[in-house]
Amino acid sequence: MKRCVSRVFLFICILTSLAAQSLQELEKKVSEFTLTNGLHFIVFERHQSPVVSFHTYVAAGAVNDPGGETGLAHMFEHMAFKGTETIGTKNFAEEKKALAEVERIYDKLTAERSKGFRMDPLKVRALEKELRAAIEKANSFVKQNEYPRIFEENGAVGLNAMTGEDATQYMVSLPANRIELWFLLESQRFLQPVFREFYKERDVVREERRMRVESNPQGKLFEMLLATAFAAHPYRNMPGGWASDIENLRVGDAQKFFKKYYVPVNMAIGISGDVNPQEIRRLAEKYFSLLPSSPAPEGVRTVEPNQDGPKQAIVEFSSQPFVTIAYKRPDQLDKDDPVFDVLRGLLSSGRTGLLYKELVRDKKIALAAMADAATPGTRFPGLFVLFLVPSLGHTVEENEAACYGILERLKREKVDAESLRRVKTKIRASVTRSLDSNPGIAAQLTYFYMNYGDWRKMITGLDDIDKVTADDVQRVATKYFIEKNRTVVRLMTPQNQPLEAGK
Fold first, then answer.
1. Whole-angstrom Cα distance, residue 388 to residue 398?
2. pTM for this one?
3. Do the Cβ atoms of 188 and 80 come closer than 8 Å?
4. Does the domain spanning 311-496 belong to CATH 3.30.1540.20?
5. pLDDT digits (tens, 9 = 90+) for 434-471
6. CATH match of 51-89+142-290 with 3.50.50.60
């Protein structure tokens, strides 16, 4: 009889294997070292196939954008693979002169615009024309996509970058016999950054904002939620930045940001796959020790003040109505952090979550209902968010009331043991999925090291989840899910009249 092994069965085997592994056994596969300049490497040996994944984690995200320069961290995602002084250019000596000329003209334009009522409009228009010509000349020296092309010609997959509130991350996977190529290209990208096509990419970032926020109802809703919930902390700014800030970002701003945050001590690199740890260390010393040492950047100074009462806002947009309900919560280092993960699982865990069962399945007043344990980031105190989409004939207010009823029940009644067990199992399964690939392992190693100071939190954090009790759930719900701590943002059609769901 022909036998086949389902993906589900394989996954259960993986989950069981991970649960059975002791931390000591896992440590045998992990090696780590720190270069003298402060750059930390974490290496995971995984010899199932001759491929290797690389993950560079930089602890610089939107939360670190300087005042008036929101969107700057995001610019580095777009500039990531533009090349170096030798890659991506037809003639760097001439390109360097052209780039300097762009900045010289831009300085003159900025100075004229800053004169206020004394500004000469004719001079501004002339300088704008001159600037466009200078940018076009500088861009003429660019060899388009040469940096990613070199990777792709050597078998790379998954070359990408992403920016969040707390970090910017870069990743790629390569055949195991192309490891040194990554060390060369990635180290040179940090050693010899060239901010070519900066203003072209700035236009791209601005267009992304139009699509993802200004023309997107959920984007507008989320932006309003952050701007309303946070009075002072930079978590109030979306990673994409505010329109006027994006439109005025300069290369000089990016250079200062790079010098401050893109330093070895503020970065970590995870490597997972068919590797020899000794060879990895040799290559790291050869290529990345060239990066100069620099002090760790100063942390975010602004502390969000206590919220003294409920907040609410309305976004008018011709769209399906939505509502977000957010409660302030502590950061990832707080002792109650794992309890929020369990609460999210209880409320929003597929078809077994309380929100789905009551609002979508039973009462049929919602098309979708979900929760997120930590928005928009985790390094600083953030938000526990609930997101509700009313169904046809039902309102956001009706959904709100039903949601509050569920939260009150969590305060009043202890969650049953079976529900608690099911949620903990799903959380463990989710972590296991992330460790079922080289890219996932490399990403998790760097995340936990940079956020907790030890990659082992990846495993010990599951133990913290297992320790969460029904009393903990009730205590945290009672402490944080209160009106004074709440921000509600509703998306409605103009004149505050809800659009019928589905239209």
1. 10
2. 0.91
3. no
4. no
5. 788 999 999 999 999 999 999 999 889 999 999 999 99
6. no
